[in-house]
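FAQ: What does the model actually see?

It sees only this:
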Amino acid sequence: MAVPLSGRPETRHLLIFVKAPRLGRVKRRLARDVGAVEAWSFYRRTVDDAVRRLAADPRWRTVLAVAPDGGYRWPAIPRVGQGCGDIGARMYRALKRPPPGPVVLIGGDIPGVGPRHVAEAFRLLGAHDLVFGPAEDGGFWLVGARRAPRFPCPFRNVRWSHPETLADVRAALDAWTRVAEAATLMDVDDGEALRRWRTLSRRAASRAPAGAA
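And it is asked to produce this:
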């Protein structure tokens, strides 16, 4: 838990950015390769797994940021609507919303993300203004902000869903902004990425000790 100059521990806020898992409305790029039903099934399973792994951790307060507003529910976890605008506007709105304290926002559809990844992002915010979790496709799966003493919008002139998305974000930041990078993870957005993820998952499972969770 971060401790500011006042001596009081700050609350850490984790935002899980999700769409309501509606058939034909999620993972459309993946659906072009594997079909709408398989893409929907992957999305729903991945989101449910991420929420289950992360929301119970007492080191942060978890909130779901959902689209459309009011579209996705999880028992006992508060939620807020993403609102309107492009993804940059919606992420900035979500990042500004929580009470004082560092905030980390992750995509809910990143397979393999776990508490250690989120904890590392919060640790990095102890000495940086922003932290990004790069995705292998040139975007990012995580963005975190210290939000003190100020938090201008970091998403200006960004080409979204582009190999240079994260590079665009970083290029537009003020020179004095202290930026760190967390682990690089895979964002499964097409059939090739899904096949590679399944291969890696099978290899990891075969190496896991007997009885390991």
